[in-house]
Amino acid sequence: MSPAQQKKLQELSIIFSQGKASPKQIQQLSELLAQINRVHEQSLSQEHRIAEPRLP
User: Fold this and answer.
1) Which residue stretches of 1-56 are H helix?
2) At what angle do helices 3-17 and 23-47 cross, to 10 degrees?
3) Residues 54, 30: Cα–Cα separation, whole Å
4) Per-10-residue mean pLDDT for the chain, 56 residues long?
């Protein structure tokens, strides 16, 4: 997660915990979490890839 994403997530978390989230902020959180999930899924798929055999 980038520092900007982390900061935005913290800001939205505070707003949500206060029960003051607007529809726009709910959408922002949804989009942010989708971005984070995509990056996480890509890194998992790369970790589990079988390496190509090395040619001599």
Assistant:
1) 3-17, 23-47
2) 140
3) 42
4) 89 94 94 88 66 64
